Amino acid sequence: MSNLDREAEPTMCGGRGFVVAEPVRELLSPRRVKLGESTEVRRLLPNLGRRMVGAWAFVDHYGPDDIADEPGMQVPPHPHMGLQTVSWLHEGEVLHRDSTGSLQTIRPRELGLMTSGRAISHSEESPRPHARLLHGAQLWVALPDSHRHTEPRFEHHADLPKVTAPGLSATLILGELDGAVSPGTTYTPIVGADLSLTRGADLSVPLEPDFEYAVLSMAGEAHVDGVPVLPGSMLYLGCGRTELPLRAESDASLMLLGGEPFDEELIMWWNFIGRSQDDITQAREDWMTGSRFGEVKGYDGGPLAAPELPAVPLRPRGRVR
Questions:
Q1: CA–CA separation, 140 vs 320, rounded Å?
Q2: What's the topology of domain 20-259?
Q3: Cis, bond preceding 64 (omega within 30 deg of 0)
Q4: Contact, 47 vs 236, CB < 8 A?
Q5: Which residues contact 10 (CB under 8 A, 6 or more apart)?
Q6: Residue 11 has what pLDDT?
Q7: Distance, CA of 9 to chain centre
């Protein structure tokens, strides 16, 4: 999914100076952003006070939206560099096309994982016809310097591992959780899991103390480590935890996101993650001149134009402990 903000601002993120080295309970409120003509998303990362959670660098939550009489998601071809995109649905379908030739319909609780590496372009749209409701999350994972120039690829995993406990059914999206391992390709120590809680559930989920974590509420009423987290908001939890207490006041859905704190300092601008002004400038030029990012075939419409670069220099920043 693209960042369609026409006034794209550079985001300086990464570096362990942004990491809270102990357990915290920091509730993040979303920023509302229009995505195309008919979809509004709630952006949780990057946030004014929190840029990354492990290698997770971008989190949008959207829906549930009634699109029975609407076109639904319509995101024209656009580029990515230096990251992975994670498409995750609770309701509806998204048709993915990309410049490697991939064509895939992604359905609820199936993993659509696109590794941009050095360069890729893709489009996303609601199929025709499509389901009445659309509800999901779109996330980006920053690639470490050693892998950011890798060849682009797309993975679709419909059968993902499950972790269960009384009142809990968890689908593992990326990484490892309680002995289960996702088939999705990762390049840093990371975890992403979809947690479905039944009303009255009261339990703890095992965590890695060296990871930092956050929980995104997708639906229902749940308390995370005693903090009520409403749908469309996210609770940042810091590091140093071995378990996470959860309690559900109703049937609820959460996304657990975590990973080893990301050491590298990054520049995230529009749909690119780089390390320098030159990285971003060259990527924009290559996209606008039709080189490097390939072509998305089959989408009914033209590609997105990149916004203008800001007048101020783009510099990676971040405090180092």
A1: 23
A2: Jelly Rolls (2.60.120)
A3: yes
A4: no
A5: 267, 268, 269, 280, 310, 314
A6: 53
A7: 18
Q: Which residues are CB-contacts of 158 (< 8 A; sequence separation ≥ 6)?
A: 107, 110, 111
End-to-end CA distance of the chain: 33
Neighbouring CB atoms inside 10 A of 26's CB total 15
- Residue 92 has what DSSP assignment? S
Q: Give the pLDDT confidence score for residue 176 in this predicted structure.
A: 98
Quickly state the pLDDT bin for 38 (edges 50, 70, 90). Answer: low
d(CA 262, CA 266): 10
Question: Per-residue pLDDT tens for 268-285?
Answer: 999 999 999 999 999 999
Amino acid at 280: I
The pair phi, psi for residue 147, each rounded to 5°, is -125, 5
Using omega within 30 degrees of 0 as the cis cutoff, is the peptide bond preceding 79 cis?
A: no
Q: Which residues pair with 157 in a beta bridge?
A: 111
Distances (CA, A) of 98 to 116, 139, 189, 303: 10, 17, 26, 12
CA gap 112, 125 in Å, rounded: 13
Omega before 245 cis (within 30°)?
Answer: no
Which element (helix H / strand E) includes 24?
Answer: strand 23-28
Q: Strand 83-91 vs strand 94-98: parallel, antiparallel, or unpaired?
A: unpaired
H or E element: which one contains 74? strand 74-80
Q: Is the pLDDT of residue 76 over 90?
A: yes
Query: Which amino acid makes up residue 99?
Result: S
What per-residue confidence (pLDDT) applies to 103? Answer: 98
Break the chain into its structural domains and give their ranges. Answer: 20-259
Mean pLDDT of the chain: 92
Nearest CA to 293 out of 285, 135, 10, 301 is that of: 285
Comparing 27-36, 77-86, 135-144, the range with the smallest average pLDDT is 27-36
Tell me if residue 217 falls in helix, strand or coil. Answer: strand
Q: What is the pTM of this model?
A: 0.91
